[in-house]
Amino acid sequence: MHAYQSALVETTVEAPTSEMRLLSKGKVFWNLTKVSINNQTPNVLVKLNPSSYSSKAKDEGDKEEPPKQKLLRYPVLPLNDTLERFLLTAQPHLTPKEFEKQKEITQQFKDKEGDKLQGLLEEVGKREKNWLAQRWLTTAYLKYRDPVTVYISPGMTFPYQKFKDMRDYVDYTAKVIYGLGEFKGIVDAGQIPIVKMGKNELDNSQFGKVFGTCRLPIRGTDRIVYNPCSNYIVVIYKNHFYKLCLYDKDGCLLSAKSLAKQLDEIMAAESDYGVPYGILTTDNRDNWAEAYEQLAKTPENCEALNTIQSALFTVSLDQCIDVEPEQQATQLILGLIHGNGSKINSGNRWMDKTIQLVVNPNGNVGFTYEHSPAEGQPIAMMMDYVVKKMGEDKNYGSSGSSETGGKPQKISFAKPNPCVDQWIFYAKRNIDKLVHDLECNVLKFKCYGKDYIKKQKLGPDSFVQMALQLAFYKMHKVPGAQYESAHLRIFENGRTETIRSCSNESLAFCKAMTEGKASVKEKAALLREAVVGHQKYARLALQGLGVDRHLLGLKMMAQENGLPIPEFYSSPGYTKSMHFRVSTSQVATTYDAFMGYGPATDDGYAACYNPRDQDIIVAITSWSYNFETNSDKFAKALEAAFLEMQDVLDKDPQDNKPKSKL
């Protein structure tokens, strides 16, 4: 009952055990890493030159399939190596006595259940080119039952806009829609470059998985539907849904002016708010699945749901809210993450869509994206592309088709029955609580950026990671297990591995900075050692040599084969090092923009950062109901950490200038 078929586009439903099938030619995804290839610089954005791009939609027979990429098989690592690395990452969280006990538990695991589970995983690895890919998608995303709102779906901001009036607002929105259509054309044409890390190509497949993609709510385990050949978008205004064709009858991308005309028609047609069906998508996945089943009982609703799910992306034309200038950045990211509640814009969403463009007349613009099919940097790359094109050409979007593409069509739902009304009531209550509970502070640190860090011969990403470690330690007096994602793009369908940023070196650095006993020279040396230690682990993770995915695979072998979960997985070293109180990622862009999302634990923080040449932007979130954490205080602690680290390096007697070869 959940697999809907559109008359215009063929839909493929991805169940947990199925492979995805893309229907159009040349779909590739360039998923830029959240950590750079050498782990020391932000992602280098490849120039996408649209000079050879045609705004005409490509047919199946227009061109040949691009050459198949040469990608590595995802390995099953030697068990000994993984367990040795695990012990090093667990040590900072344990007392000496606990660590000795952990070594015993780990050795017992290796000698007993570990070897058997390793054998089972190796057999799976022989049969599957990437034994992790589908298991990770299912476990990390599709089986996850908390709302995608806050917990899964990040917001990605555009630079703040100053709209002169509603005309300016609509025209801007139309240009962004045009830009996304042009970007999709570049993807369809196979013009996304293949990048290498050393001798290895990086997997581009994710780019073909974001346009036309939607998550379906199903009790227990969700599914994903892919509609890459769709030719329209869905516009949401005052909770009403409209289908808007992106191309004319000949398949050419409509001009921004033609798109703006259709947006005008949609806004003129609605003076009252509609039933907030979209708010159902913000709720717990099982609640939404129950409501979905009720909605899908009528043919009219089935057609409406199918139309929304099959769109290339959605556009939320939000209601204007007043924002104080000092709160602009914080309110911007919160509006993208959750829509600010049932009485504001949370109902003006469809959170299951991979790409949601959100535009508010107050100047707050960005993406909300459902995380299941892709990582964060590709979404940032779309933003970079559109913003760059609009900045370079005031007439951007004028080269498209001047035809109207037809009038926008309203997507109608049947009048909600009492059961659906009840689920809407629950969803409103739950999103309002979520909005109340999420704290946020966007730190815009302006004293220095990555240029200064590079001059110290340190990697910006690792430097920021150590600043986060220091800020947490200063606030909470304990080392925080810290998660940073590293891409696995050298492998076919690779997603991420965990960089465990908390280490013996980072703990030694934090103690030296807070206990008042170390000299400046000792502090500087420990800072450099901590940064280098992080760099080494990050390089291992990028090669698939981390700890977390292998250990997850062994645990899944026990689950899949009906075996008991080993004691190792409840041991102090494992549970403490896996309780990621600081969840981080770098999403780099040259613009005044950033990404944000919710914390991974009740007693932790999320910190997504954009280190630019002269400043560092960090979006910090935490839960207001937890008395240990506070986003405002953490932002101040992080700012202090950045300044203290600068002070130490500036006073470091070590000569950081390049030595003369003479």
Provide a brief overview of the structure.
By secondary structure, the chain is an alpha+beta fold. The chain is 39% helix and 13% strand.
Could you walk me through the main structural features you see in this protein, from its secondary elements to its overall organization?
The chain is an alpha+beta fold. Helices cover 39% and strands 13% of the residues. The chain has helices spanning 79-90, 96-127, 133-142, 166-188, 256-269, 285-295, 299-310, 328-337, 376-392, 418-437, 450-455, 460-476, 504-515, 520-542, 548-560, 572-578, 631-651; strands spanning 12-14, 155-157, 196-197, 200-201, 213-216, 223-226, 232-237, 240-245, 314-317, 355-359, 365-369, 409-411, 438-445, 482-487, 496-500, 582-586, 595-596, 605-611, 616-623. The strands form 4 sheets. Strands 12-8-7-9-10-11-2-17 form an 8-stranded mixed beta sheet, with helices on both faces. Strands 13-19-18-16-14-15 form a 6-stranded mixed beta sheet. Helix 6 (285-295) packs antiparallel against helix 10. The longest helix has 32 residues, at 96-127. The model is unreliable at 1-55 and 656-662 (pLDDT under 50).
